[in-house]
C-alpha cells in the first residue's frame, strides 16, 4: 500500500510549524491539517470567551480567515497553537466591541421540542453530575466581565503562561494577574450561590 502524500490523510507527520511553512510555500492541504488538529480547542476557547455559540462560530471563522491570510507573518516565536489562540481571542474581542456599539437582536425562541427555551441556551438534558458542574461553570463564566472571563479561560483552562496571555491581549502581566484574581473570586461566589460578580 502506498502512503498518502504529505498533507493528505489524518496522520501527517509534519509539525504545526512545518505545516504553516508548507502552506506559505503553496501546499494547498497544509493549512487544512493545522485547522483539523486544533479546531476543537479553538472552538472551545471562542465559546468560553464569548459565551454564545453563534458568536463563537463567527469568531472562529473570522480567526481562521485571518490566520490563513497572515500565515506568512508567523515567525515561530511561539507555538502555532498559541498564535492561533491569540487570533481567536482577538476575533472574539473584536466581535464584542462591534456588538457594544451596535444594538443586538433578541434571541429567537426555540421550537416546542426544546421546551420553549432560547436556542442559544438550549442544552441536551444530561443528569451526570460532571455535566451539570460544567454547565454551572460555563454559566458562571458567562456572567463575568469579559476581561476577567478571557484571562481565566486562557490562564486557568488552557494553561497559557501569564506573560504569554499579557502579550496576546496587549496588557501588562500585573493586569492579567489582577483579572484572574478578581475573576476567580467572582466565579467562586457565583458557584456558591452568591450575587452578581
UniProtKB/TrEMBL annotation:
Residues 54-101 form the DAD domain. CDD domains: Sigma70_r4 (cd06171). Transmembrane segments: none annotated. Gene3D superfamilies: 1.10.1740.10, Winged helix-like DNA-binding domain superfamily/Winged helix DNA-binding domain. Coiled coil: none annotated. Pfam families: Sigma70_r2, Sigma70_r4_2. Keywords: DNA-binding, Sigma factor, Transcription, Transcription regulation. The keyword DNA-binding applies. It comes from the Bacteria. Belongs to the sigma-70 factor family. ECF subfamily. This is RNA polymerase sigma factor SigM.
